[in-house]
Amino acid sequence: MPEPATFPEGARVGVLTTEPLGRILDYLAPETGCTLGDFVEVPLGPRRVMGVVWGPGEGSFDRAKLRPVTRVLDVPPMREELRVFLSRAADYTLTPLDAMLRVATRSPGLGEAPGLRRVFRRGFQTPTRMTPMRMTEARERVLAVLDDYGGAAFQLGELAALAGVTTSVVKGLVKTGAVIEEEAPRDLPYPTLDPDRPGKALAPDQETAAEALRATARSGRYGTTLLKGVTGSGKTEVYLEAVAECLARGRQALVLLPEIALTADFLTRVEARFGAQPGEWHSGVTQTERRRLWRMAGEGGVGLVVGARSALFLPYRDLGLIVVDEEHDTSYKQEDGVLYNARDMAVLRAAGCDAQVVLASATPSLETWVNAQSGKYARLDLTTRFGEAQMPEMRAIDMRSETLAPGRWVGPTLQTAIAERMERGEQSLLFLNRRGYAPVTVCRACGHQIGCDHCDARMVEHRFQKRLVCHQCGETKPIPTACPSCGVEGRLAPVGPGVERLAEEVAETFPNARIAVLSSDLFGSARALKARIAEIGRGEADIIIGTQLVAKGHNFPLLTLVGVIDADLGLQGSDLRAAERTFQLMRQVSGRAGRSERRGVAMLQTWQPDHPVIRAILSGDEEAFWREEAAQRQAAGVPPFGRLAGVILSSPDVQAVFDLGADLARRTGPLTAIGAQVFGPAPAPIARVRGRHRVRLLVKAPRGVALQAALAAWVAQVRLPANLRIAIDIDPQSFY
Ligand code: ADP
Ligand code: ZN
Question: Which of 110-114, 403-407, 432-436, 468-472 shows the lowest mean pLDDT across its residues?
């Protein structure tokens, strides 16, 4: 590795700041000099902002007017590998580089010197003495936050902010002893994980896969492997062996999980395997811990990090392995201020730092499946479930021959199956991918459907919260008694089922059942959700009713029946990935049944038992499904055989968005030059969100062309009127 360039005092340096300026600014190196990649603080107008020394200065700006760098932060400089990665990621996603830097430095107090810090945590007195003399609502909120994060230490400001109280409330609690204040050393390295501790004895197919992954880790080069195996086949145990090999070689490893709720179980397994817990990085971790992890990643004081997708942007000293668990999961692609797909970015980062990528899934994305078919990725298969567990039997329930009263959703066949499970002390899971009580509230007098004031979306009734909620913008309002359109009282009625309504029906049908509803909006915190999931795992529920939250990796040993209330739900809609999504989701959910020695059964209520996707799910012939789906996409020239970019224009001014859309559609020169086609402008499927009108254009290009550059040249031709935003989504996952 070449020595980083050193800039002596007064040399011109180019600094990339975290401010949205769209360019690199020149400064003079400070008294101490600085090196490429140094994290620095620089003056910008009256303020001081953070930045990174990105290269030598440009030289065009009058030297006499240049200001010196204020100070160099006491953290390791950003390595070339990360700088290159951020640039490539910015180019790929058409994101300004400063926005990428913000993602990579989302950790408070980076510049503070290490030393002692004051922290606040829950007091350890006996429960009676722990309750302060005078309990107020504000004090209760502070204690609730401390309990939610179970034992974590906070700095004063963060604790007060999370609880929504003033700092004096926290200090008042210190006097009562319910909260203790102490000096703690900050930013200590994480305990070392011991890769030499024996792991579980692996089954033969697990051992074959583990050995293949160890070999890739030993190569010290980049490579990507698809690790495919049904839920419960022991993929986690296998990739932990790749982690062990990586740690044994003195390199760092990162495991990405799609859902915070899954981390608790994973932490336990890591501790069992390696004797200590890894570093955790996600929104449920305190800022103090995040800063520690950010620093330790750079100093090599953490061996394994488990986290959400933004953990990809930590300044690792030597990253040797990235595991993307449930690689097909849609939550890897979400708006973070920056639109990126964590799976693709993992491959990009690994390629630049000689790391291996493991993509683990029971139901890989079509992109990954195709990459494995073509040999771009290696592929390892685990074909059986670990131990006694077998894949569940799959059955369709033809809804055309079931009798159901209106407003009821669980057919007689499914009811009988649930009753049998209850008699045997086994659990049933009913899956319905719809939060809330009812998706539509309609007036029986005039037919009006209650919609959101800011979006073209219907309000969803949430009966637990006693409110109507817009799932687009989050706006809520009380459930009215009279119709907002015709004013008639008492005729508003819910239409269609959500999980809450399903729970009501099930409680009537099975009055003695213990029912658990798992839906992301019903839990105040990730910790509360984890606790509930653990209870259910111990058997403290007979019937579990859940949204797609339950599809992801939780282990319920007593669960032997999965009932899918509406298997056709995802097949509607015109989304490119509708079939793929339905197939994955149904397989995932069905995989919940019979994970231990009892064989499970999955029953799919459907009105279209002959639909090709439903047939593929039932037959279990996955490869046939993928081949068919791939052939259709290839014929249509869509991903992964062609490229797509979604362009959404939005503005409060409806005329302005359509005008701009039409203007762009007339000037497609840069795009036609690369053989791309432009579709639209058309109103986006959700034509108004948060009061902004939305118009969509879709760009379809052949593979292997410079799509990003052409898109940039295309939109650069138009001037954006005030208040008009343009968002470009490369490889869009959905089209809302
Ligand atoms: P997957 O990640 O493919 O869903 P897991 O790795 O979670 O599968 O394994 C499913 C269950 O089987 C877990 O409870 C795990 O502890 C257990 N298991 C897997 N492999 C072994 C093994 N070799 N020895 C003992 N238990 C195992
Ligand atoms: Zn809304």
Answer: 110-114
CATH code for the domain in which residue 91 is found: 3.40.1440.60
What residues make up the domain containing 246?
204-285+300-382
Residue partners of 65: CB distance under 8 A and separation at least 6: none
CA dist 340 and 588 (Å) reads: 24
- On the question of pLDDT at 4 being above 70, the answer is no
Same domain, 304 and 219: yes
Q: Are residues 535 and 585 in the same domain?
A: yes
Domain end (from 185, 215, 233): 185
Q: What is the pLDDT confidence band of residue 303, given thresholds at 50, 70 and 90?
A: very high
**CATH no. for residue 370?**
3.40.50.300
- The mean predicted confidence, pLDDT, of the chain is 87
H/E element, 382 = strand 378-382
Percent of the chain clearing pLDDT 70 (strictly above): 93
Rounded Cα gap, residues 123 and 273, in angstroms:
32
Task: Specify the CATH number for the domain of residue 156.
Answer: 1.10.10
Q: In total, how many domains does the chain have? A: 5
pLDDT of residue 1: 45
> CA 316: distance to chain centroid?
21
The rounded Å distance from CA 5 to ligand 1 centre is 48
Q: pLDDT digit string (tens) for 605-661?
A: 999 999 888 888 888 788 888 888 888 888 888 888 999 898 989 999 989 999 999
Among protein residues, the one whose CA lies closest to atom 5 of ligand 1: 234
Residue 462 resides in a domain: no
Q: Which pair of structure tokens corresponds to residue 82? A: 């990360």
Domain annotation covers residue 484: no
Same domain, 93 and 21: yes
Is 268 in the same domain as 330? yes
My answer on whether 404 and 549 are in the same domain is: yes
Same domain, 609 and 562: yes
- Residue 710: count other Cβ atoms within 10 Å of its Cβ: 21
What is the pTM assigned to this prediction? Answer: 0.83
Q: Ligand 1 pocket test: which of 208, 236, 381 has the largest number of ligand atoms within 8 Å of its C-beta?
A: 236
In a domain, 81, yes or no: yes
Q: Give residue 484 CA to ligand 2 midpoint distance, Å.
A: 16
CA 495 → CA 101, 414, 431, 449, 639, distances in Å?
46, 22, 18, 10, 36
Residue 118 CB burial class (10 angstroms; 0-12, 13-18, ≥19): exposed
Distance 16 CA to ligand 1 centre (A): 46
Q: Strands, E, within 506-610: which ranges?
A: 515-518, 543-546, 559-564, 601-606
